[in-house]
Batch of 4 targets.
Target 1
Amino acid sequence: MRVIDINLWRLCHCAGPPTECKVIIMRDNDCRIPGATLDFRRYSRDGKRYLEFDSTGCHCPVPMVNAMAGLQQSLGEGARLVMVNGFEPEGLYERIRGCFDWQVERLKDERVRITFTAIEGQAERLDFSNRGCKGG
């Protein structure tokens, strides 16, 4: 049995963990989200709670599936969702428009960090089960 650090595993996660990996070490702030395929982490900053995941390098439908699972979980926890990705998820924006607001930060390595915040009284009406992706 081989033990692998969670950050190393994330590098190969989109293709699935290496078959020889049997145990994944999760840090205290790492968490599993129902319906997600990537690991998330929880943290607080400036009195606000966050859930964050990184789908950089992942292909459709991984970013959409994890964003929708994360948005549903963040709504239930009263947290904000942070998505780090290699591109802006335009299809996700269209799906959640009017239910969530978002801010985009461009990182030095050309990735984006998107912070999603639920719109009070609107986010609850989103169909979180619609996790399909058309790509792009």
Note: Residues 62-77 form the longest helix (16 residues).
Target 2
Amino acid sequence: MLDTSALETLAPRCKVWLERDGHVALSDWRVELLEKVDACGSLAEAARRMNVPYKTAWYKLKEVEAGLGSSVLLKTSGGARGGGASLTPAGREVLRRYHELVAGIEELVARRFADLFGEPPDSHS
């Protein structure tokens, strides 16, 4: 028999990522990296803000682009302003769709949890 008082403090969690041929193409971490690059205009700065080596960020970016089969960043090199990066239209669209997918899955999980265990105490803990 389940102790229903213990169930009152349970809250559902789920992680979503997209794979191609068993390799991660997009995940929360990779989405965060792309959004930081777009916000600050630099892969190097985004890597610094995420406390990861530039090489790691670059490698993950290449995995995203290979997995999606599309460039997600417009990169400009050097010059007087030092170059930069921003999301391509395809990059913006894939992030929009990813966020929509994750939100939908979280809603589905919350409804399923409520059906099976009752309402979660706080869905944002």
Note: The beta strands are 17-20, 23-27, 73-76, 84-87.
Target 3
Amino acid sequence: MSELVREIVEVAAMVGGDADDPLLIVEADGLAPTAGWTHVRLEPHVYITPPDDGVQDFDLVGDRPAGSAADALAPVEAGWEGPLADWLIGVRIHAADNMVEEEVFEFDDDFDDDDDDDARDSAEGHVRDNEDA
């Protein structure tokens, strides 16, 4: 049976796909309470009506090992891709001990300077807020 991992460490959320078919891409790193967790994944909350805060909630869950495992925090990671809802402004990832919110960003296609590869390489993470789009 799946359960929440212990803690969220880092979250990244961005827009992928293209203008006709935008995708929400979410990645999360966390800590499980023991080693040996399997099927670690992000499970989106399902809404009947969009949330007032514009934030899509996810649970970072996995399957605890069947046998005994060392009681030491173990790193886990998961990703999720799906359609980008028009109401979405951010994501919130839940674990047993904490939750982390992240605004959704998309990569700025205008940032492309072919004359200076070093500048482009060092610009990893150069993002544009969706509200500016």
Note: The chain has one domain: 2-107.
Target 4
Amino acid sequence: MLQTLGLTAKALFSFLEYTLQNEYWFLATPWKFIKEMNSSKILIVEDERHIARFLEYVLQREGYQIAVVNNGADALKAVPKFEPNVILLDLGLPDMNGIEVLKQIRSINNFATPKVVVLTATLYDEVSDELNQVGVDAQCSKPIAPTTLIRTMQEI
């Protein structure tokens, strides 16, 4: 249908984005509603506040529900309360290793097991092997581009 109208999907989404930000917002209301309907909940576990804010901003714009914690102990408390579908987990947390946090999360049996995306500035082969053993669904290097983050969330 878009081809019949001579439009590309990118052009259509650009138009919708423009209408959301300008006086023609009422034309894009259905699109805005669809984006807001995303029910996936993401827990961000990141000790660097500027990175946590960046991740939160990008994912909220995509319609995800977000909770942010800055250390492993808070992550262990937040998982049963927030019940995330996905956890973005930094490996280098100040109070405990991200792998240890993940092992403890996986041992909690009273909720659905969330997908886990590990964020790290450096990734070694032995760490990568251990991550695979504890059930990591994806690994991303920091810094991460918004498009890479969104694509990763859509793929898992």
Note: Residues 9-21 form the longest helix (13 residues).
